MarR family transcriptional regulator
Amino acid sequence: MTDLLASAAPAAPAPAPAAPPATPPAPARGRRTTLAEQSTELRLAVMRLARRLRQERAETELSGSQYSALAWTVSEGQLTPGRLAELERVTPPSMNRTVNCLVDAGHLVRTADAGDGRKVLLRATESGEAIVRETRRRRDAWLAKRFAALTPDERETLAKATMILGRLTDQ
């Protein structure tokens, strides 16, 4: 009887060839699932932002490391070359080359410490201070323009992230 039913019923269609296994979709940007993925995404975003902000600078021939050293002297006041090397996390000989360029360009001056004449202090000149002010103004303006396009909730999120990023850099 089963043979009779089988022959009377239309033949079942042949099975379709197996499709290749589907690749799981990549997580949406900003929605990484593992700590490693989140770390990578954050690192890339911070690097891109820093690179873009570095492009907003005063018209000058200074390299990024020269500008950074100059900015430290404007922010912190007089510094020794050794302290400046520590702040920039470079070797003293490397910082000495940077300082020499800034002195030759007229953006830094060397002076002797009043208490210890053997100690050299570095101070930004008026032109050095002007470069730092203009660069900061341009960077702040660039970022403020982008902040203005964000929603209040997004700005609040960035304010919280700023505090968290500050904690990460202080560790």
In short: Helices lie at 2-8, 35-55, 64-76, 81-88, 92-104, 126-148, 152-170. The chain is about 60% helix and 5% strand.
